[in-house]
Amino acid sequence: MEQFKANPEKSEQKTLERVAETLKAGFDQLVIHGDFRHEGGKSQLKLRPDLDAMGGVFLMDLAGINYKMVTFVPKGKDLAGAVHIDTGGKPELTMEEDGSIFFDHHGPEQGKPTSATAIVYESLTKAGMLKKEKWLDNFSEFVTQIDNLDYPIDEEFLKNDWWRTPYGIYKALPLSLIAKFFQEGRDPRQPFAEEEAKQITVKESGGKKVNLWDICLQNKGLVQISLNGIEAAKKRMAEGGAKPESAELGKVLLNIVETTQDPKTGRLKQRNQIPLGFTAAKALGFDTYALWSSANSSFFLTSQTKKLTGVFKKLKDAFLDTQLIRGSMVINPPNEKTSHSPKNAQLGKFLDYLGI
Predict the structure, then answer these.
(1) CB–CB of 192/219 below 8 Å?
(2) CATH no., domain 232-354
(3) What is the C-alpha to C-alpha distance for residues 356 and 344, in angstroms, rounded to an integer?
(4) What is the full DSSP assignment across 99-150?
(5) Nearest 5 degrees, angle CA 165-CA 146-CA 183?
(6) Is 281 or 13 the better-scoring residue by pLDDT?
(7) Angle at 317 between CA 316 and CA 320, to 5 degrees
(8) What pTM value is reported for the model?
(9) SS3 state at 267
């Protein structure tokens, strides 16, 4: 295979030229990832690409690249001969012998923060297929910051402004509107004023129209729920004897997502007491955030200040399918099989390997 950035300069240029040839000619499948969601006791693949995947598609469309269809796969998976954005487990732009192309950044090695969107943008501009512009520079940087949580955030910003900035509300916005903000020169740290936000209408899932201020207020509610959830999680850790800090992971926050059954419908539902996850944890000064799902014993571990390679080596033998991503994230995701290998594993074993 050929890899952009990892190989000598001539090989980099050759890879880019081959990729550009494929893109200019048009191709059949553009592959992005969906996401497994646990509903009703089963894990199902949902068509839920994140901002990075959609940002890459947006740039492809902006460059006028022709493709026949968009195909969804589970995170990290790939399809032979297709063009992939934000999936495939490759650390950079890669072209394989069968013609498969990967605009990805999910290799196991730790490196500087980047994103699939940034790799698409750099590749298209270097190949002369997309004009480099200031607003596109800023758009690409924003996606990278979101995908890596690589922007300054503390408790004061989280409580007072984050919930009404593009950083906080991007999930509720159509990509076209996010792009419009950058075309207009908006600073993503600039909070929306109430009157301004009320003049902007967006569609929620299901087609319902709401104004942007309503979304901001919903997000403000999630901030308070998450802050309360962090206090509850800290108390639960203390009561359970879990250590709040370790030499390997620094200051740790453990979020245990419980599964409850609706007494009327009998359906299983997960209750996440920290809906903002690592965003809230980072704002409050935690080094490492760990989420454990009681529904299927899957887990997620991330840190920006500690390397997770050592913890990954301990976990991968005990929990099958455990993956290390960029050296700063360890995941053991749920999948479509209800007999997922670590399903019966105990939380205590997980905590032992974390050293807390």
Answers:
(1) no
(2) 3.10.310
(3) 20
(4) S-EEE----SS--S---HHHHHHHHHHHTTSS---HHHHHHHHHHHHHHHT-
(5) 60
(6) 281
(7) 65
(8) 0.88
(9) coil
